[in-house]
Amino acid sequence: METKPVITCLKTLLIVYSFVFWITGAILLAVGVWGKLMLGPYISLIADNSTNAPYVLIGTGTVIIVFGLFGCFATCRGSPWMLKLYAMFLSLVFLAELVAGISGFVFRHEIKGTFRRTYTDAVLNYNADDEASQAVDNLQHKLRCCGVYNYTSWFASVYYPSNGIPVSCCFNSSDCNPEDLRNATIAPSKVYHQGCFELVTSFMETNMAIIAGVTFGIAFSQLIGMLLACCLSRIITANQYEMV
């Protein structure tokens, strides 16, 4: 078998792979920016403190974009040491994604516990004005739920004595008034009965296997890039091939 056609084939495959890898980085970067701009309040309900998850995605996406371009450049140049460096980076990405996927799946119950604790705190200290309170309102309105476990969660909040249950719990906001929402007898007929915690955690449980599968799939795809980069580097080194 001639060496040059093999090298050309490997280069083509690695360039295609690097382009797909670059697209993955661009998607992570876009998701990170979107998460920071649009999901900041919701993320604060899941984490005890301000989470750096959006920044991690932005940073990871940026690094992948840079190394994706580096992979294309190394492939076109046919530089063995560049290809080895690219393979090393892919191995680090593989290990990081593998650890992240396993950690998320193993510690999913801790994530649920943290969400229960932070969401309960947001409900108890609700004031209708701060970021956490607005996130609670949006969550209740969009998911059509009320309180942590049900509408009775609001009875212990600092907001309830003077304002009652928030309007975001109502079936029809135009049919809710503060007097009715402060009345423990009338309010149940005007608000959602299902708690938000159950809806959110059910969604997490239902989709955790899918999320884990996608994560592991992306992680193991790095092995393809590693294999291509190592094979190309080895063949070029063995045959002292140079791109003119």
UniProtKB/TrEMBL annotation:
The chain crosses the membrane at residues 12-35, 55-73, 85-107, 208-232. Its main location: membrane. Gene3D superfamilies: Tetraspanin. It is a multi-pass membrane protein. It comes from the Eukaryota. It holds the Pfam family Tetraspanin. It is found in: Membrane. Keywords: Glycoprotein, Membrane, Transmembrane, Transmembrane helix. Belongs to the tetraspanin (TM4SF) family. This is Tetraspanin. The gene is TSPAN7_2.
